[in-house]
Amino acid sequence: MDGDIFxxxxxxxxxxxxxxxxxxxxxxxxxHILDQNRLLINEINQNHESKIPDNLSRNVGLIRELNxxxxxxxxxxxxxxxxxxxxxDVSSEADSGxxxxxxxxxxxxxxxxx
Length: 114
Description:
Layout: H1 2-50, H2 53-95, E1 99-100, E2 106-107
Antiparallel strand pairs: 1-2
Helix pairs in contact: 1-2
C-alpha cells in the first residue's frame, strides 16, 4: 500500500517538473515576442510621426508583423493552458490513490460510488 502512495508522489513530482519547464520555456518565448513588439511599436510610432510616405507605407508591414506576434503569444498561452490542464488531470489521477496530509502522514482517500 505504501509503495502505491510513494509512486504516485514521484509521478506527481515529475509532472510538476515538466509543467515548470513548460512554464519557463513558454514565458521566455512570450517575453521575447513582447520585447520584439515593443521595438515594432516604437518604430511604428516614429514612422507615423515622421509623416514620410515611405515610412507610413512601411508601417503596414510592421503592423502585420505586430499582429502575427500577438497571435503567437495567444497560441503560446493556449498551449500553456492546455499543458496545465493536462498536468492537473494527471496529478489528480495520481492523488486518487492516496495523499499526504499537511502533517506529512499518509491518508487514503475514499472514492464515492455513484
